[in-house]
Write a structure and sequence with these properties.
- It is a single chain.
- The strands form four sheets. Strands 1, 3, 4, 6, 11, 12, 13 and 15 form an eight-stranded antiparallel sheet that branches. Strands 2-5-14-7-8-9-10 form a seven-stranded antiparallel sheet, with no helix packed on it. A five-stranded mixed sheet has the order 16-23-22-19-20.
- The chain has helices spanning 2-19, 214-222, 224-229, 231-235, and strands spanning 22-25, 42-44, 49-55, 61-68, 73-77, 89-97, 103-108, 117-121, 124-128, 131-132, 144-150, 156-161, 164-170, 183-186, 200-208, 237-238, 242-244, 251-255, 264-270, 276-283, 288-292, 299-306, 310-318.
- The chain has two domains: 22-232, Jelly Rolls (Sandwich); 236-318, Immunoglobulin-like (Sandwich), CATH 2.60.40.3080.
- With 320 residues, the protein is mainly β.
């Protein structure tokens, strides 16, 4: 029984880490994944170039980007990534198009064999042939924060620009899922109705193997500079957090002595799939805090604590 329990704990721990994985491409003179956890992107069409560009939304800061020609782009090989991208995922892109007349391809799930997928149509968000946004939030020659999420349980697909939901539909036919080729294409159009593409540039792509909720999308957009330049990570110092008892039931005691000088503290529990289960803001802290977990289901969770300039995390097990 003890051996089984240890194996189960190891397996759940492995699943937990996998559930938290994010692949991050930042296009600083390279198409490689910045943490070495994912495959290098493969060029489609003509090779692009790496240039420094001005990103107007974040104080006209400059960053390295990958500039691609019309009907060119790149491919994410999901098989090489260990089938990282499944039915439950999120994709964040920060990109700019030079042309916006008619349809311009953003993401293709079917390796150019279908005209379905994510486009921009005259500045409006379009998932052909299912949904179109009411407004045109994308402007020519302006970088846009663009997000796509899919929930495996509900099959709900949401497409965001600048943290606002512009498209929302139920993907009953699996149009937002990879086919047998198991690759995801960006900016390069399909062969069914070809050349619906624009030249442009991309500054960031992040691929998650879980669904970001609207709050997480909004937080990422609010911290756009941190996502693009890792400013938030650099500003906040990693520290430690003591949580006991562990396993815990009903109440989890937190030793916050490393956070006593912080004005505001954010305490969050996320599950194996990266979903936020509990999120609590605390101010005027003492050295300890008791977290009510009486309504939390049994299982492994990631405890994250963030202050003004420091952060900490710990894995906890809730046993009810």
């Amino acid at each position: 029984m003890k051996t089984f329990t240890l194996l189960l704990s190891a397996l759940l721990g492995s699943l937990f880490l996998q559930g938290q994985t994010v692949l991050h491409y930042d296009f600083t003179n390279s198409l490689t994944e910045m943490n070495g956890a994912g495959p290098e992107l493969t060029v489609l069409g003509n090779s692009g170039i790496f240039v420094e560009d001005e990103l107007g939304e974040i104080g006209e800061a400059r960053k390295w980007v990958y500039r691609f020609e019309k009907n060119s782009g790149f491919q994410f090989d999901n098989a090489a990534a260990g089938n990282f991208l499944g039915e439950d995922y999120s994709i964040e892109i920060y990109f700019v198009f030079d042309e916006l007349t008619s349809w311009k391809r953003v993401v293709d799930w079917k390796n150019r064999k279908s005209d379905y997928g994510a486009f921009v149509f005259n500045g409006r968000l379009n998932f052909y042939n299912i949904a179109m946004s009411d407004e045109a939030p994308i402007a020519v020659n302006e970088y846009t924060y663009y997000g796509i999420t899919r929930d495996a349980e509900t099959k709900e697909v949401k497409v965001y620009t600048d943290a606002e939901i512009e498209i929302n539909f139920t993907d009953n036919s699996g149009d937002a899922l990879l086919d047998e080729d198991n690759v995801l294409n960006f900016f390069h159009d399909d062969l069914m109705v070809p050349n619906e593409a624009s030249p442009g540039a991309v500054a960031m792509i992040k691929i998650y193997n879980y669904t970001l909720d609207s709050t997480a999308i909004a937080n990422n957009y609010d911290d756009l500079a941190g996502n693009l330049f890792f400013i938030g990570e650099q500003k906040k110092t990693n520290t430690t957090i003591q949580a006991f008892p562990n396993p815990a039931s009903q109440r989890l005691n937190l030793d916050l002595s490393n956070f006593t000088m912080q004005q505001n503290i954010s305490i969050r529990l996320t599950d194996l799939f990266g979903r936020t289960i509990l999120n609590q803001e605390v101010s005027n802290l003492t050295t300890s805090f008791q977290l009510d977990i009486s309504s939390i289901e049994e299982g492994f969770y990631l405890l994250s604590v963030e202050g003004d300039d420091r952060k900490a995390s710990s894995k906890v097990f809730v046993k009810q």
